Amino acid sequence: MQTLMKNLVWVVVGIFGAACLGGIALNRGETINAFWFIAAAAGIYAVAYRLYAGWIVATVLSADPTRATPALRLNDGRDYVPTHRWITFGHHFAAIAGAGPLVGPVLAAQFGYLPGTLWLLVGSVLGGCVQDMVILWGSTRRDGRTLGQMARDELGPVAGAAALVGTLLIMVLIVAVLGLVVVNAMKHSPWGTFTVAMTIPIAILVGIYMRVLRPGRVLEGSLIGLVLLLAATVGGGWVAESPTLAPLFDYDGPALALAVIGYGFVAAILPVWLLLAPRDYISTFIKLGAILLLAFAVIILRPDMHMPAVTRFVDGTGPVVAGHIYPFLFITIACGAVSGFHALISSGTTPKLIASEADLRLVGYGSMVMESFVGIMALIAACVLDPGVYFAINSAPGVVGATPEQAVATISSWGFPVTVETMTALAKEMGETTLMHRTGGAPSLAVGMAHIFAGAFGQGLIALWYHFAIMFEALFILTAVDAGTRVGRFMLQDLLGNIYRPLGNTGSYVSTVICSALFVGAWGYFLYVGVIDPNGGINILWPLFGISNQMLAAIALAIATTILVKQGKLRFAWVTGLPMAFLAVTTTVAAWQKLFSADPRVGFIAGADTMAAKLEAGTLSAAQAAAAPQLIFNQRLDAGLTVFFILVLWVTIIEMVRISLRHTQGKSVPPLSEAPYVAMDQLTPRMAGED
Length: 691
What we know:
Elements: H1 2-26, H2 35-60, H3 70-73, H4 85-96, H5 100-108, H6 113-140, H7 147-155, H8 157-186, H9 190-213, H10 218-241, H11 253-269, H12 276-301, H13 325-332, H14 340-346, H15 360-383, H16 387-394, H17 397-400, H18 404-413, H19 420-429, H20 442-457, H21 462-497, H22 509-532, H23 538-566, H24 574-596, H25 604-617, H26 622-664
Helix pairs in contact: 1-2, 2-6, 2-15, 4-12, 4-15, 5-15, 6-14, 6-15, 6-23, 6-24, 7-8, 7-23, 8-11, 8-21, 8-22, 8-23, 8-26, 9-10, 9-12, 9-21, 10-21, 11-21, 11-22, 12-20, 12-21, 13-23, 13-24, 14-23, 15-20, 20-21, 21-22, 22-26, 23-24, 23-26, 24-26, 25-26
């Protein structure tokens, strides 16, 4: 009877979530309340976590709580540390939650609210959450090995080498895009720049406090950090109004890009406890707190979604992200639905912390569910804005016109009326000088969040809410910039260590400085070129980021599929094989279009050739002509990287198919690299985080 009642409850929850989603999908001709998006997401996530993820853990993965994890068997108090499940959950979420779930859904809002909502929900529960959990399981069963090492062990040296080099280049693009989002959020914003800049000394102070001044006083350090962050947000308003201080924090894009590049280098070589760890720890509170507060405000306010369900820009003429809704919706919304970057975390630090295989569902599947919810909230914040305002903020001057008058005329001609007076008043309301052409997604997201917060908690503080949202976004992103730079440095040291052994010594300060400088220089190049791009940079870099990130996810799912087949679970290979196939086809189509489309806003080669022709004809302005050679080279470089990523993806998939067929035919294949079984009851050390 009790089992029947439990099943009945889950049936009711599933019906509720499906009904809410159906209402969103079928609604036409009138506005729809944002509350239904939260209700639909909650219902779908709950059923997927309880039933689908539970079935995968129990049946497909055969997770065994009696099996000792590498954190228990290899406990060294430094890298391998058995940690309480909720602390591990917090670490994993902080590591995977970067700019992607915030920016991707905002950029994809140009297609309307419906396509993004469907992909965020369906893509996450069937693809992204599955990838994160299965890779975490695979790495935990293999002593916490990295994705590249797992590829080498399970697929052989060819696929392993391709995955290692491909992953390193993908990390370069990921960090460059994250940096571009930060730069566009702070450009000519003294308030935002001051607040973000203050997060660095605050994190260092908290790190020193918890390690040197008051060791072990985590709660005290956390409270100090939170109070100082809020004070920096308020203080930014005073700085912005000061004729003396405001110019000290008012910078253009190139200057901010150099500052972010310098920060990335310093963060990569500082001790992890001094900046990276305290920033991640504090940001977890801000991330979860702000998203839950935003959801609470939506439930109270119940704002209408002003963006149409589907816009005219599904045809590929969008001003924010160029390209048709298929395949570009699926690479624009990357991290909120499926993210290959997560596979690096699931095979990086997290498997070295898992204390029991019973925690795999919470940490792997649950963290990705939370990130998908962040994406839903970001989509809501973008779509409650008036569409004309949304496009005025997110459209680059090279697309809609350089002057405010040209921009609003172009946007109004699309059927989304907006005026210069509206944008001027909005900027003043937010404490900014202008919000026109603030590409990258972060500024429009902050405006949407500020309107929701102000509507629920008080209009008088709307400028403060806006800059709180900017600080919240910057914390999301900078944690990924410094963590990504550090991980990229480790990967580069591994690679260069095969050529010259001393460079592979992660304990060497000389090696650390050299490899940090090389890696920062690589992503710094793409960041700087994106900043000087007259089309906003994000139009070029984000699709390439999405393509490479989704290709990495397909590679990770191919490795997971190989492991399942070699374990004799061919009948369950569809669990990872189907999302792998969808991502492989979709990203290949996207890559093909980015290479060979005749539209210069879509195709890398067409864009380079068009700009080269304008440069030769002398039709560019002096500033555009100065930047043109670098932009032309960068577009052609992007084309070369795209070809390389396609080759890495299909080499991995072909090797997966070949090895799977050989295994089913009883022929020799690389053996499973799974560590031998050791009973949990033989190892019972105290877990980190327990009293």
